[in-house]
Write a structure and sequence with these properties.
Layout: H1 3-19, H2 24-41, H3 54-69, H4 76-90, H5 92-104, H6 110-123, H7 129-146, H8 151-162, H9 164-167, H10 172-181, H11 185-191, H12 193-213, H13 227-235, H14 238-252, H15 258-275, H16 281-315, H17 317-328, H18 332-347, H19 352-369, H20 374-388, H21 396-405, H22 411-434, H23 437-440
Helix pairs in contact: 1-2, 1-16, 2-3, 2-16, 3-16, 4-15, 4-16, 5-6, 5-13, 6-7, 6-8, 6-12, 7-8, 7-21, 8-21, 8-22, 10-19, 10-20, 12-22, 14-15, 16-19, 17-19, 18-19, 18-20, 19-20, 20-22, 21-22
Length: about 450
């Protein structure tokens, strides 16, 4: 059988399995394994000969994933995840939210703005959007409801703020993208700084416009906050600022690689937590437990993704698509529009890690055909995945918030609150795509 035909069938089979809610790791791994076997056993112009396929198939299935999982670069992921959970257990994330709330409480929508700022601060020390939304949801939403904020604004601001965990470095998604796209993770981290700040400012602007139109949705808290309280809360943020400078600053000035930065960040967080008396054995164990769980989940999906990448490479499907694009004369704007639509559509149903591993074997060759920077494209992809985290019907961050608030806030209210912010997301996405300088200007110094 023609490898290209096997590739098309395999891609369709993968999408069908995902539509049937088969776990992404199982879908990618199963289709890739069967597809690789068929390619080796049923060569073009020859009869089906399975005896020739067992050895190369098992060799590929055993060696490539093992080499991938044991790679030095991939160790960055569990270290950054551990760093984030340690920071949460030590209360460093609460510090930055509390400082933002005390300084912004008297503004229109100040507590909601503080929630978004707190999400940005949390994102600076962890690479997970879900963890960011879950942590800030437990802290900020009950407080906003207590102050009389509308349910849509309280839940929507935290759900959208949590997506910053994907964009603001360090980010697990950027690490995976860098590994599979063979790009510098350090440059990807630096490239995301300006788009991340732009996204945060856009969310703040939406909150301001929202409460200007509907002031009843965000009453100003009736509490006395002294200047001493504000300064004390600001001083308490020194630990999280130190962590961000140690990790991102160290990468930016070339003191260490992203992998080394992850180790430095985790060790510094642990040391600060112990010295300040904020961590004990129970909290450290809880951080380790969550880190092992999340890392294992990511690694299992990555193994399936690695097999799928090898399968697509053997079929030549990506090469055929790029050749068709080159010969058909399709406009670059049409191609980018189709890529955007594809990622947003998949984001409605799949988790971000699965989308990255499913699509990169096909989209990267296309982007390279037009001579675009893969660093810039990485920022575009992560921004699209960020939008998918709050897009119905799945909207992973929305369901995380729902699991936290329970019956206090209906699911439709959370999606309704997030809908306001989707206009800001579209604006920022258009700016990132239309002005590559936003992503690439800082990478020139790395």
């Amino acid at each position: 059988m023609d490898p290209l035909s096997v590739g098309i069938i395999g891609l369709i089979a993968t999408l069908v399995l995902l539509a049937l809610r088969v776990p992404i790791a199982a879908a990618l791994g199963a289709v890739a394994s069967v597809g690789i076997f068929v390619i080796f056993a049923w060569r073009p112009g020859a009869e089906f000969a399975p005896q020739w396929a067992w050895q190369p198939t098992f060799s590929l299935m055993a060696n490539n994933p093992y080499a991938f999982i044991t790679s030095y670069t991939l160790s960055t992921i569990p270290l950054f995840i551990f760093m984030g959970h340690l920071a949460y257990e030590a209360g460093f994330t609460t510090d930055i939210y509390r400082a933002a709330r005390l300084w912004l409480a008297k503004l229109k929508g100040g507590v909601a703005i503080a929630s978004v700022v707190g999400c940005g601060g949390f994102s600076a020390i962890t690479g997970s959007s879900v963890a960011c939304a879950a942590a800030m949801g437990r802290i900020a939403i009950p407080e906003m409801l207590q102050f009389g904020y509308s349910r849509g604004l309280a839940s929507g601001s935290v759900a959208i703020g949590g997506t910053l965990g994907s964009l603001i470095p360090p980010s697990v998604l950027f690490i995976l993208y860098g590994i599979f796209a063979e790009q510098s993770i350090a440059k990807l981290f630096i490239a995301a700084i300006i788009p991340g700040i732009l996204s945060l400012l856009a969310y703040v602007l939406v909150i301001y416009i929202w409460v200007s139109k509907r002031p009843q949705d965000a009453p100003v808290p009736d509490e006395e906050i002294s200047r001493a309280d504000r300064m004390r809360a600001l001083r308490d943020c020194w630990a999280i600022v130190l962590l961000f400078i140690a990790v991102v600053g160290g990468i930016y000035v070339g003191l260490f690689t992203p992998t080394e930065a992850a180790g430095v960040g985790a060790a510094t967080t642990l040391l600060l937590g112990l010295v300040l008396g904020r961590l004990n054995l129970t909290k450290i164990f809880a951080a380790l437990k969550e880190s092992v769980y999340q890392s294992s989940m990511i690694f299992v999906i990555a193994i399936g993704g690695k097999l799928f990448v090898n399968f697509i490479a053997l079929t030549g499907l990506a090469g055929e698509i790029t050749t068709w694009i080159e010969t058909s004369g399709v406009s670059v704007f049409v191609v980018m529009a189709l890529i955007v639509v594809m990622y947003i559509f998949l984001g409605m149903f799949l988790d971000p890690i699965g989308i990255i591993l499913l699509t990169l074997p096909l989209t990267i060759p296309i982007v390279e055909t037009f001579g675009f920077s893969l660093i810039w494209f990485g920022v575009v992809v992560i921004k699209l995945l960020e939008i998918g985290l709050v897009t119905p019907p799945i909207g992973l961050n929305v369901f995380v918030i729902k699991s936290i608030v329970g019956d206090r806030i209906p699911l439709e209210s959370i999606f309704g609150g997030v809908a306001w912010f989707l206009f800001a997301e579209i604006f920022v996405l258009a700016a990132i795509i239309g002005i590559p300088w936003l992503s690439l200007v800082l990478t020139a110094f790395v």
